[in-house]
Design a protein that fits this description.
mainly alpha; 2 domains; 5 helices
Length: about 90
């Protein structure tokens, strides 16, 4: 992203499509999913299992699997995993 493009975005100008993609990619790299609301993550996961009879059950299985994978690797699961799991049960 050019300095001018960044200045324009910071000043409120609507960025070009390619610039918006780059901003989103940068944000994802820097922030990860920690700043994304649990419901948004659950909705995205739901898209992968939308043809199941119980999509929310599919999302819960995906979240449990992610949690188990982190545990198997000996590292704690990211906070977003707990938040999504809580949003499904609450």
């Amino acid at each position: 992203m050019s300095p001018t493009g960044l200045s324009n975005v910071l000043n409120g100008t609507q960025p070009y499509g390619k610039t918006m993609v780059r901003l989103r990619e940068w944000y994802q790299r820097e922030e990860g999913l920690s700043g994304v609301p649990a419901q948004v993550i659950a909705d995205q996961l739901r898209r992968y299992v939308s043809t199941l009879p119980e999509p929310d059950e599919g999302v819960a299985i995906l979240i449990a699997t992610i949690n188990r994978l982190y545990g198997s690797a000996g590292v704690p699961a990211p906070e977003w995993v707990r938040r999504v799991r809580s949003s499904l049960t609450g």
